[in-house]
Write a structure and sequence with these properties.
286 residues; alpha+beta; NADH Oxidase; 2 domains; five-stranded mixed beta sheet; binds flavin mononucleotide
Amino acid sequence: MLNDQSIMALIQARFSCRTYRNEPIAADLRRQLEGFMDTNRVGPLGTSARFKLVAATEEDRQSLKGLGTYGFIRGATGFILGAVGEGAKNLEDFGYLMEHIVLYATSLSLGTCWLGGTFNKSGFADKLGLEADEVMAAVAAVGAISDRRGLVDRVIRRGAGSISRRPWDRLFFDRRFDAPLTPEAAGDYATPLEMVRLGPSASNRQPWRIVWDGTAWHFYIQRTPGYGKGFSGRFMTTDLQRVDLGIAMCHWALTTEELGLNGSWAVREPAIPRTDDLTEYVVSWA
Ligand SMILES: Cc1cc2nc3c(=O)[nH]c(=O)nc-3n(C[C@H](O)[C@H](O)[C@H](O)COP(=O)(O)O)c2cc1C
């Protein structure tokens, strides 16, 4: 449960909102969101992060000035900024913590949209006071959802295939990458897997792959050739597919917890032959 609401309902309700009502987020919602952000500081793999809400208020509608462009987002009156320190799994931890905030915002009936590429990095870095040893992997727009979805919003959602997701047999496997795992065979874990499947990902690439080996669930990235890795902006290295894996971990952990399935994370690569060089082991849950 998150804010007295079912995690599964929140995961299903979330979508990338790109058209917002041009009104400040209500003061009590801002306070609740900030309160949650303050408690959400260490990722499951041990990296610390910090988050900040930058939002217009009734008194100051100009607070977002200077942030420049942020792609296709229209009317957003708030942004969730985040920074993570150095660490082997820092981007996964960042994705996990930011998605937890996104789901909390969803529980407040706010719209959100992850932004990893189409935003002005330096403006946001200034607002956050980004330190040299920190990475701002992505930000999220947040605000009141507009009833009227703009044209751009509709086109992007169709273009990015936002509503569509890869089928199970391309994502989840039984002991080997060439043996798909069916929902029936997954048993109690079919729901957590489905919640991973519904998660947001950069360009809707859905790079997460999960292999069940009889005792543990192993999470991998299936990298998109030439995408993300190695690209580096002025203030960040944007390996967004690692952030996507953190989002998948968040959906998995919150759902299993809600279903009373106990487990914990460990980084211990199993001896499962990988399909190709673009498949990269991340973490296991048992
Ligand atoms: C790490 C990350 C970065 C993203 N960057 C952008 C972005 O720069 N611009 C944008 O419009 N959407 C961005 N998205 C949103 C995805 O396009 C969206 O999650 C995906 O198409 C699935 O659609 P849905 O969120 O509506 O389910 C990003 C999502 C993630 C997870």
